[in-house]
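B., you asked whether I could sanity-check this one before it goes into the benchmark set. Here's the sequence:
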Amino acid sequence: MDLFFKSKKLASVMGDEGALKRAYGDRNAREIRCRLAVLCAVPSLAEVPRLRPERCHPLTGPLVGRFAVDVIDPFRLVYEPATGSPIGRGGRVNLAKVTAIVILEIVDYH
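And here's what the prediction gave me:
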């Protein structure tokens, strides 16, 4: 899957191991790199594991239309489809057609 970033600053931090560790700590940085590797390796959002450790899940409330994978609790890597949400049956996003995402943030939204 193709990964894009919300900002140049976020892309810079995610691409630099030292900056990633400074921003999120050693343990979180390691997990973030693992999650990004998984997201890059799959052909579509439908292939991202729904079980731990990734636990890909759609978000609700003010974050509806976005998805997240777990990092180190309570932090989540939040992203959205890059080109709108391909809608399938029942008004749900057709995950098999999402082949590019935009990484928005790493946050504790709880």
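One thing to flag: The mean pLDDT is 92. Otherwise nothing jumped out at me.
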